[in-house]
Amino acid sequence: MTFLSGGAAESFGVPAWNGGKLMIDMLNKGELPAPYDQKGFGGMMIEAIEIDEAGGATKQVQEFRNLVQREKVDAVLGYVSSGDCLAVPPVAEELKAFLVLYDCGTPRVFEEGSYNYVFRTAAHAAMDNISLAKYMTSRGIKVGTFAGVNQDYAWGHDSWADFVASMGVLMPDAKATTSLFPKIFAGQYGTEISAVMREKPDLLHSSLWGGDLQAFMLQASARGIHKRMQIALAAGDHVIPQLGQKMPDGIILGARGMNGLAAHAKGGELVDLLWDRYKAEYGVFPVQAPFRMWQGLLGVKAAVEKAMKANGGKKPTAEQMAAAMKGLTWEAPSGTITMALGNGHQAIQPNAIGTTKWDEAAGEMTLVDVEYYDAECVNPPNGIKAVDWIKAGFPGAKCN
Amino acid sequence: MDLILVILVDGLIYGAWLFIVSVGLTLVFGVLGILNLAHGSLYAIGAYSTATAVGIYFAYGGDAFPLGSYAVMALAALLVAVVIAPLLERGLLRHFYHRDEVIGVLVTYGVFLILEDAIKLIWGVDPLFVYEPYDLLGMVEAGPLFYVAYDFLVIAVSAVTGFAVWYFLNRTRRGKVMLAVIHDREMSQTMGVNVDKVFLLAFGAGVFLAAFGGALTAPMISVSPGIGVNVIIVAFAVIIIGGLGSIEGAALGAVMVGISRAASVHLMPELELFIIYFVMAVVLIFRPEGIFVRTQTRKI
User: Fold this and answer.
1) Is residue B291 included in any domain, yes or no?
2) Is the ipTM of this complex over 0.90?
3) Chain A residues contacting B via beta carbons under 8 Å
4) Residue B251: CATH number of its domain
5) Residue B11 is part of which domain span?
6) Which one of A74, A241, A250, B124 has the largest count of C-beta atoms within 10 Å of its C-beta?
7) Domains in chain B: how many in total?
8) Which residues contact A186 (CB under 8 A, 6 or more apart)?
9) What is the pTM of this model?
């Protein structure tokens, strides 16, 4: 379940599903390195049904019921939209169906709810902005004032709130000035750019995504905004394949995890294999979305095979898969994933922030000055809400 | 003083863009009496066609004369009008001219849904970029800020377009015939006016203006599915403020919305979304039919 049409399709849904199809094919052929070299899930071939996430939460609840009750699927992996991630889990509990949320960012799923059959294999969004604030301190970037341009819905407001709270702890002298919230899919940002340029902050924070971020960067870079202030994009890596050199050098960039260019910069057998295969198949490098799909699929594989082992090698039930996934740790292209929050149902993962630099010789964008953050450095401990953890000054954070 | 200048410049830039994307909508309503919900899709098709055409232009030697891309943008919009307008107007809309206005809204909503899917079938879901025309003219210093000169080109094009439409309607024989059709369709027909031809011409002009709005916008944005949806909402606000069917009203409405929004973003950003509809509500309280619509006698 992911966006195959609509505003989130080209940035998240389609790249994620491209990555998903690629990995399912490689898993069924046993082409991944150990510990994922057993074909399919524990020798069982994976058969995927793709459903478009577009259409709103009510439609997704119905689609979920169809998948579980008519199609009799063993597991559902899906949802980019936070609205869908909040709407579907109660239905999964009602139907006792194994559900893995692979992408959405809202912390509310497990901070406000408790489920037996529902898991989220990606960290929630607080990590993105905590890491961004930490990057300012660790790279010695001077920030006297900072402004924000974020979309006018939960994602934008939460991102800005997390960033302001994190800066309040890490750089208490830095002052938040302008905070603008243009509506989602606005397309025109001329006035917002003027307002920020007139304010002249040292730093501009944005969690814009997709076409909004592309339009904003086209309009802002044409006016030279990046020469007048530091720009930090909480989740901006996914627009690089489309923007290319129109994304200026020197932009601080997150990817909602150690994904995309940051993962490639670190390298490793699994990352390099998937990176090359994805590029060969689709002609672009994998951004954050396929990485989250991959860590979701590998998490399900690890849980299924663990459950099968406990079940004498037989196909596990939803209850057995859920029991196996609770508190599970596995290796993904984006680092070590641990189901550490939400009583073993919500993942934490490492993060990375870097700075854009165009490689003239290779003709492609790279990330330089990449800082890597351990999962327990930028994610709250179990039982405490992210925003409370930030405001308390990150108690118990384990940073190397 | 600087702040007032910045608000005026930002407001005019946004207002000019609003006018160019809403003038076709008001023209079609004025002549055909149809509130064309497919206007946003026609805007999107104009943007896609421009992205494709300008992309081809630069791929085949356009770098030698980059200013030619502006002509390509206009031609792409014209092509959209020439292909789509007769298909829609002759093939579909003419069957609904004598029906209730609500039927026209439902029909064009259906067209909107079909065109949105057609866009995805033709161009896919990946975004297109055509930023070359945006950068061509460099930057302009206005008060304390720098602006992209292209934004001022949009103001100029918008002003010329508005004047041209006004001049055509009020100072040319064909335009006066069109006004006659607006005022009394049956009487015009009785006097020998080929009303079908007038309708096709007006709808073609409306489609061209929608596509031209998309063409002018394409270099500033990521051309991707759904770009027409938001445009139609704000375009409706503009033409309701100005008065449905009024070109002057669309111009005044666009400037009012543009400057109000700019003032809000600079002074009270939390009211940015509210301010457009606040302006609309205030206008409708005092002028329920919009600023430029005169009270009309009702035929019995």
Assistant:
1) no
2) no
3) 4-7, 9-10, 14, 152, 178-183, 185-188, 190-192, 194-195, 197-198, 210-211, 214-215, 218-219, 222-224, 242-243, 246
4) 1.10.3470
5) 2-286
6) A241
7) 1
8) A212, B230
9) 0.89
